[in-house]
Amino acid sequence: MKKLVALLLAGTMALSMVACGGTAAPAASEAPAEEAASEEAAEPAAEEATEEAAAEAPAEAGDMTVAMITDYGDITDQSFNQTTYEAAKAFCEANGIDFTYYKPEGDSDAEREAMVDKAVADGYNVIIMPGFAFANCIYDEAPMYPDVKFVALDVSEGDLTAYGEREFEGANVFSAVYQEELAGYMAGVAAVKMGYTKLGFLGGMAVPAVIRYGYGFVQGANDAAAEIGAEGVEINYAYGNQFYGDADITAAMDTWYQGGTEVVFACGGGIYTSAAEAAAKVDGKVIGVDVDQKAIIDGDYGEGMTVTSAMKGLGATVNTLLSAIKEGNWGEYAGKIETLGLVSENPEENYVQLPSTTSWGDSFTEVDYKTLVADLFSGKITVSDDISAEEPSADNVTVNFQGNIK
Predict the structure, then answer these.
(1) Are 56 and 325 in contact (CB under 8 A)?
(2) What is the C-alpha separation between 153 and 313, in angstroms, rounded?
(3) What is residue 45's predicted lDDT score, i.e. its pLDDT?
(4) CB–CB of 222/188 below 8 Å?
(5) Which alpha helices (H) appear in 105-230, and where do they start and end?
(6) At residue 35, does pLDDT exceed 60?
């Protein structure tokens, strides 16, 4: 794990086996019968060793080809897809590697699997998949293409083992999952310390990653309220049951904001659009998710709307894995699912963090944020990742749980 952390840190900062030889055996026709039989028995093992060594050898630019497949959104979603696409594209351009992306025609496992089949047929041997929606696709497709390297982002072990009756075969798969509860916690602390007392959490679908964000957000708000003695802190809490905004969800957000909600943590793909549309009508605020969403939200809905974002290190993860494959270190990752979070007390080196564009102020400064991260890293502050309860609970703030809006 320490080696993995070191490699991941190197990927963050840079953004960015040698094959064994042997003496040639004599031809079967030149060897005695017993020796020939022995050599025939050894051939499969020798071929396997050669293939394994080749897989660990540094990849030439022409040998490594990379394709990304989008999930629910597209490469302009200012979230998972766009961040993953931009990181992969930049890496491949810098290293002279062929890169493309595929967008499924619709939102189904069959359509995602069709894109994997097409990518492999087109000659791509590294496939990047952002988002839990690829779980069934990976379960079905990875065993079919053992020579293809699959890099998944946010596809958990539970996701990958939830399908079918056979055991998941993932020797050619690496998935990075993240400690969303920590990023959500930071956002909850920031919101309350900034002076907001009427908060909202609008999740996309109630999948584990979104729930962890939300439960972490509640924990952070709860602890901050206790620390500063804030009274009357309330959190409206709901899921849209989809990863995009629409008129129904915007109407629900109108009710929240016009009822006094000051800031909403909009967590789940494009669902932020409904929160932002409602916030714009009353000069409300929004907290972004996964990436720094300030530019897109403020640009489309009003300057100063985004107070912070709860972020994951998606780009750094992509760079780390593509670097490992290029350098022949895929074996360090193949067949693993790793949880990424805090690896340093330095906020910028971590895989969960708040952005530099956060609306710092006297009540929540950059120094306060760095202290918070240091306390989380040292274990002085602990955040639960338990999402087994049907709804979040708190003892210092009131949580108005509303379930699914749709």
Answers:
(1) no
(2) 10
(3) 44
(4) yes
(5) 109-121, 135-141, 157-160, 180-193, 208-228
(6) no
CA distance readout (Å), 116 to 120, 121, 369: 6, 8, 41
- Please name every residue paired with 106 in a beta bridge, in sequence order, or none if there are none: none
Q: Strand order in 126-130's β-sheet?
A: 98-102, 65-69, 126-130, 149-153, 173-178, 336-340
Burial code (b: 16+ CB inside 10 Å, e: under 16) for 23-58 equals eeeeeeeeeeeeebeeeeeeeeeeeeeeeeeebbee
pLDDT tens by residue, 270-314: 899 999 999 999 999 999 999 999 999 999 999 999 999 999 989
Q: Could you give the 3-state DSSP secondary structure of residue 17?
A: coil
Residue 49, pLDDT score: 43
**Residue 99, both tokens:** 């890169």
Q: How far is CA 300 from the centre of its chain?
A: 25
Amino acid, single-letter form, for residue 358: T
Residue 358 CA to residue 294 CA, distance in Å, equals: 9
Contact status, residue 271 vs residue 255, Cβ threshold 8 Å = no
Measured between alpha carbons, how far is residue 25 from residues 12, 48, 226, 356 in Å? 46, 17, 75, 62
- pLDDT, tens digit (0-9, with 9 covering 90-100), for 61-117: 569 999 999 987 789 877 789 999 999 999 999 999 999 999 999 999 999 999 999
Please indicate, yes or no, whether the overall pTM of this predicted structure exceeds 0.70.
yes
All domains of the chain in start order, with CATH? 65-178+316-340 (3.40.50.2300), 180-311+351-404 (3.40.50.2300)
- Torsion angle in degrees (nearest 10) through CA of 68, 159, 164, 128: 10
Name the β-bridge partners of 263. 199, 285
What residue has token string 């696709």? 137
Beta bridge partners of 244: 270
Give the separation between CA 86 and CA 296, rounded to whole angstroms. Answer: 15
| Cα(166)–Cα(136) distance, integer angstroms | 12
Antiparallel, parallel or unpaired: β 173-178 and 336-340: parallel
β pairing state of 306-312 and 352-353: antiparallel
Would you say residue 152 has pLDDT above 90? Answer: yes
Structure tokens at 169: 């075969």
